[in-house]
Amino acid sequence: MRIKLAVAAAILLSGTACSSAPAQERLIEEKASDRSALANNEGVVQASIVQAADKADNEGDVPLSWENYSNRGSVQLLKGGLKQAERIVKETSLYAVDGSREPKVVIYARKNDTDHLYAALIKGEAAYDLGAIAGYSYDQDNQLTVRNLWLFGKEAFKIQGSVGAAASISRYFELVDGVPKPLLVVDEGHALEMDVDHDGQLEVVSAAGTSPHMAVYRWNGGRIERSSLNDALQTDAVSITDEGAILAAYGQDDRSSYKLYWLQRNGLKHFQTYSREEYESERFVAIPYTSEEVLRIRELADGLRVFEPFVPRKGIATDYGVEAERERDGVLKLSYPHFSIRQSKTDLRPKDSGGVSPEKRYFPDYTAEWIGFPDSEAGGSWYLQRDSTYLSISTAKPYSKEQLLFVAASLGPLEELTLSDGSSPAVVNPPQITREYLFALKAVNEFASAWARRDPEAGLKWVSEDWKAGKDPEQLDAFFRGTSNPHHMTFELSGKRRVDDHTYLFALRLYEYYSGQPDSILGFPADYGRGWTIEAVREGENEAGEGVWRVRP
Description:
- The chain is an alpha+beta fold.
- The protein folds into 4 domains: about 1-15 and about 40-70 and about 190-280, no CATH class; about 75-180, no CATH class; about 290-415, Protein Transport Mog1p, Chain A; about 435-550, Nuclear Transport Factor 2, Chain: A (Roll).
- It is built from 11 helices and 34 strands.
- Strand 25 and strand 26 (about 380-385) form a beta hairpin.
- The protein is globular.
């Protein structure tokens, strides 16, 4: 499944790996090598500097030094299979690209070894030793994870096990025709996969220590490279914000400062510095909202049929207030002291971008595109789509596109907004169950069922005429028929809220399925789910006085 950035950031911010773990846990690789007949020296990191910029370039105000990282572990055949196993702790089947689930990973305890747990991959009659993976006592299911993933452009799998109360070891293997090939071992802190440089490809990020020491691992030129963000930023405390930016803290008193960066291919791009008081203030960087402001945004958004409005949680730096207004062409405009955000049911990107290719930054659930003048920090806008809402963010002031991106990355649904006093006035209760609601629900259910059955004839009967107007018949037919693989499979539906006597909103998620696909492989999420708020509108009534409801996707 897709990694949620908020979860990843929470893990990295927590600094879950402890530098004071017991020696026998910190040196699990060394002990495993001593006890195993398949001795190797993978516990020793062999690194050599392959890239070290002398000064900042156009893509980063702080250069990064990347080192060859040769700690990949090893794989060898186990003679006699698992005869040395005292007990099996866990078994997990792996998916292969061809859809088979023949390979499986077995985590087991060895005879006469009460220090470690080991992993092996079993394929047919062959058993491959994957090395020590956890401390002996960390044999609970939630302390041992095995999963497929697509990493560094390779079909791979990951095994992660605990080696201490706040430390783990992660082993990554490429899967070639069902046979494991060592790819990467991370034995510092906790490792997870995330697109930390927002280029659309996953890297591996590890955080260790109470004040997190953060390192990034990437694939470059046929090899794995490692870079320490703490060393580059010359600070003991580096973390990742909920927005996906890099936060470096300097100092430990009230005069300490926080610096914000975006990680890019060739360095760290600095875009703002705050004092600790400013960054942690509930009004200076964080944007507070009053119940009156929320109500105004909700009413205007409903009137414009922007049923999923978004609001930024973070700004650039000021005492905040927001003005909401209606613009022409069904656009909701939110004005803040230093920037404005526009929202619409239709795409806001200019039809003619002057031949300039947009700069793209990738986030877990959306892509942000900067369209502006070449080599300009101003004179442009970020464009993105969140659920069924199209948004743009721009400024007429001398603030960089990097600062605006931080604001854009902080966007969250209005209905999930929590006010500074802790209340949640934006939350909307589900609609009451009335006869009209039931007819509206039936319309949306029939529409979604026809999509799942790939039946355009049945589905188009439940779509509003204004939505069908102007659309190509082939486009409408393709919406319901889909493709052979992935193909339409099923859906989830729930009532969201009643807008007025003629409109209900429903949360609809349509699922597609790729035959033989594992939980995460080939670079795609497993569920292929498309979720949005869908509108049911009353288009009159029948002879019995019952409401005639249709769907406006």
